[in-house]
Design goal:
Oligomer: single chain
Radius of gyration: 14 Å
Mean pLDDT: 92
Helix content: 25-40%
Structural class: alpha/beta
Number of strands: 5
Distance between the termini: 19 Å
Length: 145
């Protein structure tokens, strides 16, 4: 299984340590595409040596290849929202992870798109990450969580 991972880069890198944990846990379910999002050497300036068009095209190619998409959506990010919109149109199975403890409110465009099957939004805490991922990946796409 190929899993596309989304997390904030230019929107802020406050959650990079959490992204590393998510990517590590996702690796037990398959190959993680865009795992570089979890790199602590990547700053909010992005990938300096790659041009924006190259990054855009590469990431959309990975997204098309993916069997599922997992996005940590607590840190607001235009790029993550863009990727989720594309994944939704491509009818990819999507899991959005949101931490209410952040004090933020998740965008209505993300929470409102959740149907519990193709697009799943889960409020979670770090200590429950394993259970949330296990539940998402052990459920068949046509079964509600």
């Amino acid at each position: 299984m190929k899993i596309y991972f989304c997390g904030s880069i230019r929107g802020g890198r406050d959650d990079v340590r959490l992204y590393q944990k998510v990517v590590q846990k996702l690796q037990k379910f398959g190959t993680v595409l865009a795992e570089h999002v979890s790199s602590d050497t990547l700053t909010d300036k992005g990938e300096g040596s790659s041009g924006d068009r190259v990054i855009h095209d590469r990431d959309l190619d990975w997204l098309r290849q993916a069997d599922a998409v997992v996005a940590e959506v607590t840190q607001p990010s235009l790029g993550v929202g863009y990727e989720l919109g594309h994944a939704f149109v491509l009818r990819k199975r999507i899991l959005c992870l949101f931490r209410p403890s952040s004090g933020r409110t998740l965008s209505a465009m993300i929470r409102g798109a959740a149907d519990g099957e193709l697009m799943v939004v889960r409020d979670y805490s770090e200590e429950h990450l394993d259970q949330v991922l296990d539940q998402f990946f052990k459920t068949k796409p046509d079964e509600p969580l």
